[in-house]
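Lecture 7 notes: from sequence to structure.

We start with a single chain of 323 residues. Read the sequence below before looking at the structure.
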Amino acid sequence: MAGFVLEFERHIVELEETIERLRALPTTSGVSVEDQIAELERKATELRRKTFADLTPYQRAQISRHPRRPFTLDYVRELMEDWQELKGDRNYMDDPAIVTGLARFAGRNVVIVGHQKGRTTKENMHRNFGMPRPEGYRKALRIMSLAERFGRPIITFIDTPGAYPGIGAEERGQAEAIAKNILVMSKLRVPIISIVIGEGGSGGALAIGVANRVLMLENAIYSVISPEACASILWRDSTKGALAADALRFTAPDCLKVGAADEVIPEPLGGAHRGSDVTISAVGETLKRHLDELSELGPDALRDDRYARFRKLGAMTTAPAHA
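Now the structure, written as tokens:
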């Protein structure tokens, strides 16, 4: 993971590594390389600016999957106090692909629900690459119902390629678990804020995304299907993912334009993996602002606000009938 580099940023990384090697040179020879380092740093800054100023949708999708991006537990560690993880769906087992728990955020008691990926192969096997099984969604539902019982706001972190499509998951009611979460979340009478911090894949994301406010990081994506899967269906060729990405319009600016997202949170130049601390801080500030606003609403108003938000999505117009 430490050496993970996206192909389109490889030239930047190579230049940055050259700068680090020059900095590490011993200075006992009396030869100064400061001027050379300064020039290379200028070139690196310009390269970063040009490369990330006009990313394609598929490049944003690649950034959204970067293994060094902050994951749910990174946000919990930096933003929350008194974190207490709660496990299990009280029916089958615990699902590590979704983490849930109680915490304090900005002086408020809150409930946290979020997809969790791994950074190493071992961690990803444990977390099932952030793809929840039905017991994960049932765990999330149990904790969100607990939040309503005690009047705690709910914060969800969305970062999944999608719900796990394996036979066992289907046998244990994957579709029913997702559908029930969507139904129950629509009726909860506490503030709900969802943040797409990486991939927001299909029903696997929406199952914890029926919120009063849906926020997205700048390089996050939110889509009914991954670009590779879409390409496999349309062209029988998953390598045409970049072409599918252009048509899916799943980037944060696209989602903001159609109302699927309520605010886009900027990332450091180059993506969240190049500045985790800055990204987490920005998320914390945005979360607090929206939570302050929603806390002014009563229980019925929160439910009505959420209903109205989703009723506005998908509006269409029809051409007038010909006489």
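The chain is about 45% helix and 15% strand. Keep this in mind for problem set 3.
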